[in-house]
Design brief:
Blueprint lengths: L6 H5 L12 H11 L5 E7 L6 H11 L3 H4 L1 E5 L7 H14 L4 E7 L3 H12 L4 E6 L7 H16 L16 H12 L8 H11 L6 H11 L6 H10 L4 H10 L9 H10 L2 H11 L10 H10 L5 H17 L3 H21 L4 H17 L3 H21 L4 H17 L3 H21 L1 H21 L3 H21 L4 H17 L3 H21 L1 H21 L3 H18 L2 H15 L2 H17 L1 H21 L3 H17 L2 H24 L3 H17 L7 H16 L3 H16 L9 H16 L4 H18 L2 H20 L1
Parallel strand pairs: 1-3, 1-4, 2-3
Helix pairs in contact: 7-8, 8-9, 9-10, 10-11, 11-12, 11-13, 12-14, 13-15, 14-15, 15-16, 16-17, 17-18, 18-19, 19-20, 20-21, 21-22, 22-23, 23-24, 24-25, 24-26, 25-26, 26-27, 26-28, 27-28, 28-29, 28-30, 29-30, 30-31, 30-32, 31-33, 32-33, 32-34, 33-34, 34-35, 34-36, 35-36, 36-37, 36-38, 37-38
């Protein structure tokens, strides 16, 4: 005779002994979420243990989801038990393999800071994130109880009882099913949950597993319980909290091996002693660095601070930990609390003002991290004003003022407030220059660093000569430092590479060549002594040197240097560096094989981490498109372009914003190559995406790049013989130039916009007199800024406009 099923098997939600029923409101809510217009959306279904989350997930997936109609669905059950890295990988898979329309359905017992951390990170994947609380039991308890009795009776081959369900306090679906199984076994129903479990265990011959194991802990409390099961049971049975505290107190070594969800539960419901036991081990464990557990523990420990200073320091720690684990809004609030504590300390003693100023600086960082940039600037300005006040009273604090000015310049830059950014970095540079003059041993390195930052600022504003002068000043100081102390030689070499890269951007190939050669000589010597540390930096310097040589038209030497850079990167084992070097080689030597290998390298990297490598794969594909077209492999180029476009449309907006400055030039170059090869449909699609990329960067970069992208799109439209559309697009660019508030007579990009619009007016016979007027202005601007290429383009347009006007 077959043995009767165990209690655990009968109550296991995955076995579905009791058929799914009810839950109509929740199914309707899930259907609305499924059908929402958002391309990507995530939802957390949360409820206590035993509420039926798993059953509902399975039913929704099987009965209410059609992949062909609704897109991809990822179901993550017991999501609170997973570490963020695992959730992250699963989300990457939805971007890598899933369709454009994707839904992610999480289920968990707890919410709190675990879910807040996860939802803020999931939103970075362009997901609309919501949650839905599942009631612990169903509306029609009587029907649910009766169905459960009938199906359990069928499994046990007995007659189903006919009796009403007991009224169990804080009942869940599992409790009701346990009562039904008790009744089927012939025992009287009891409103006491403990008695229900005890009676069921009397009938059970199988191992204690799953939910039944947690209930067994509540009833039998074995001498050596599983700490994870005990923590989960304590969440369901509060009277077990003391047992959990006792277990952690007597065996603190169990903490590192506990599961994430049980640690979170223990951190929330355990005693302060339990929280401290967990904290002592979790805070030192790198595995939990980006988890919410350290933040949850710190939040509890804040209440134990003995005075205002201790509380301020605890809030500072809480702010740092919440930021690390993705709790961005919570980190802002913790920083605000820290600042309020220091304000109170300043009211008690003005000597505490530097502590308040530092806290304000940290608060500004948290606000930036939470995308609250305007507030960040206001807080940073308050910190600057406070440092000014402090420096007037105590000149010894001028270095802190200089550092604060440097930091706020970066924050202004992130907001696109270029004038304010330049003013702040200029003041910081002057302060560091004076400090370096009076105390060179202490501040020369700071001055060298901030002078390089000043050079980058000048470069962003088109002040090429000032950028070069400031960079040379930075290098001169690094040379002095390296001569006085050889320990600064690596820093000198690194800054020489940075300076060389900047000079390449300034089209000063000769100076760039000499600068990077000096860096290479330094790195070769340093790599002999310490190859592990400096081989990678030597490879980077060689790559930059090849680019400088290419600008000098030293094609053979440039190719040889680029190949040496590729070999150097291979020796380091750094695949990301190898991929970049291969792309440089492809561009310098028109090497199709190098471009193909680069794509394969980045495919491997994407398989490991999609988020940080997808943009590089996109760049590699765009480079490959150009090389395939150059080698007359148009069919392959079109297939590569299609893959490139597919990746473009699946790239989350946060990555577009983060990698946009790197992506846009390469995509624009590929669009130009496609247009010149008469593949206009794909050229236009790639060009449109480039415009979107540049638009996404507007809040934190000057408008010139965005306007240039619009102008290039007008050129792509012209190539596709859509000249009226091209003229209208070029006119839009002109209007936007006039809205920038810049001195247009000093903007070479504006000269380009005038020329492009003028030429399109001529070609479409639209107001040729106006076209001539615009072209003349473009000539004047190009002459004034000293740009021969733009000047020649403008002069050609003047000639065409004059001919068109004579014909009219």
């Amino acid at each position: 005779m077959d043995r009767a099923p165990s209690v655990a098997a009968l109550l296991d939600p995955t076995h579905q002994v009791v058929p799914f029923h009810g839950r109509e409101p929740e199914l309707q809510a899930l259907a609305l979420w499924r059908d929402s217009p958002a391309p990507r959306a995530s939802l957390l279904l949360h409820a206590p243990a035993g509420a039926g989350k798993t059953r509902l997930l399975q039913h929704f997936r099987e009965e209410h989801w059609d992949d062909a109609e609704h897109g991809g669905l990822l179901v993550v059950d017991d999501a609170d038990r997973l570490e963020w890295q695992e959730v992250f990988l699963r989300l990457q898979d939805t971007l890598r393999h899933g369709p454009e329309r994707t839904r992610v359905l999480f289920a968990a017992r707890i919410t709190g800071w675990w879910w807040s951390s996860t939802r803020q990170r999931v939103a970075d994947f362009d997901h609309e994130v919501t949650d839905l609380e599942l009631p612990p039991t169903m509306d029609d308890r009587t029907e649910s109880f009766t169905l459960a009795c009938q199906h359990f009776a069928k499994q046990l081959n007995v007659t189903a009882p006919e009796e009403p369900p007991p009224n169990i306090a804080r009942e869940t679906v599992l409790d009701l099913h346990m009562a039904a199984l008790t009744a089927v076994h012939g025992d009287p129903c009891d409103v006491n949950r403990t008695q229900l479990v005890r009676r069921l265990l009397d009938h059970d011959y199988g191992p204690a597993t799953g939910r039944i194991a947690e209930d067994y802990l509540a009833v039998a409390t074995p001498e050596d319980p599983d700490p994870d099961l005990l923590a989960r049971a304590a969440h369901r049975w509060p009277h077990l909290t003391g047992r959990l505290d006792e277990l952690v107190a007597t065996s603190p070594g169990i903490v590192p091996g506990m599961a994430r969800d049980s640690l979170r539960i223990a951190a929330e419901i355990g005693s302060f002693a339990t929280a401290e036991h967990i904290a002592r081990q979790i805070f030192r464990d790198e595995r939990f660095a980006v988890d919410a557990i350290p933040s949850m523990l710190t939040r509890r420990l804040v209440d134990r601070a003995e005075d205002v200073l201790d509380r301020a320091e605890m809030y500072g720690m809480l702010s740092a930990r919440t930021m690390l684990c993705g709790l961005r809004q919570e980190s802002v609030e913790a920083s605000r609390q820290e600042v309020e504590c220091y304000r109170e300390l300043v009211r008690q003693d003005r000597d505490n003002r530097p502590l308040l100023a530092d806290a304000l600086g940290d608060w500004g960082l948290r606000l930036i991290n939470a995308q609250r940039r305007e507030e960040a600037v206001a807080v940073s300005e308050e910190a600057i004003a406070l440092w000014h006040e402090i420096a007037l009273d105590d000149p010894e604090t001028i270095p802190q003022l200089a550092s604060a000015l440097e930091q706020i310049s970066y924050r202004y830059q992130a907001l696109g407030r270029d004038e304010a950014a330049m003013a702040a970095i200029s003041r910081a540079t002057l302060l560091y220059q004076e400090l370096a003059k009076n105390h060179p041993a202490l501040f020369r390195a700071d001055f060298a660093r901030v002078a390089a930052a000043m050079a980058r600022r000048y470069l962003a504003e088109g002040e090429k000569q000032h950028a070069a002068d400031s960079m040379q000043l930075s290098i001169a100081n690094w040379r002095v430092l390296a001569q006085e102390d050889p320990r600064f030689e690596p820093e000198l070499a690194r800054n020489l590479v940075v300076a060389g890269t900047m000079l390449i951007d300034l089209r000063r190939a000769g100076a760039a060549n000499e600068t990077v050669k000096e860096a290479i000589d330094l790195f070769r010597r340093l790599a002999v002594v310490n190859p592990e540390t400096f081989r990678t930096e030597l490879a980077e310097a060689l790559m930059r040197h090849s680019q400088a040589l290419r600008q000098l038209d030293e094609h053979l030497e440039a190719e040889l240097t680029a190949r040496e850079a590729v070999m150097a990167w291979r020796e380091t084992g750094n695949r990301k560096g190898l991929g970049t070097a291969l792309l440089v080689l492809a561009q310098i030597a028109d090497d199709l094989g190098a471009a193909e290998e680069a794509v394969e390298v980045y495919r491997e990297l994407v398989a490991e981490d999609l988020v940080w490598n997808q943009a590089d794969l996109l760049i590699a594909l765009a480079t490959l498109v150009e090389q395939q077209l150059l080698h007359d492999r148009d069919d392959q180029a079109l297939r590569t372009t299609d893959e490139c476009l597919e990746l473009c449309h699946r790239l989350p907006s946060q990555l577009v914003e983060f990698f946009g400055a790197k992506l846009a030039p390469v995509l624009q170059s590929a669009a130009r190559a496609l247009s010149e090869s008469d593949h206009h449909v794909r050229a236009l699609r790639l060009s449109e995406f480039t415009v979107d990329v540049r638009r996404a960067q507007l809040p934190k970069s000057p408008p010139n790049a965005y306007l240039a992208a619009i102008q290039q799109h007008a050129c792509r439209l012209r190539g596709a013989e859509r000249k009226d559309d091209a003229r209208n697009t070029a006119h839009t660019a002109l209007v936007l130039w006039h809205m920038t508030g810049l001195d247009l007579d000093q903007q070479p990009g504006y000269a380009d916009a005038l020329t492009i619009y003028g030429r399109l007016c001529v070609e479409t016979r639209h107001e040729p007199a106006k076209a001539l007027q615009l072209a003349h202005r473009a000539v004047r601007i190009a002459r004034a800024v000293g740009d021969p290429v733009k000047l020649e383009f403008a002069l050609e347009t003047v000639e065409e406009a004059e001919i068109a006007l004579s014909w009219s």
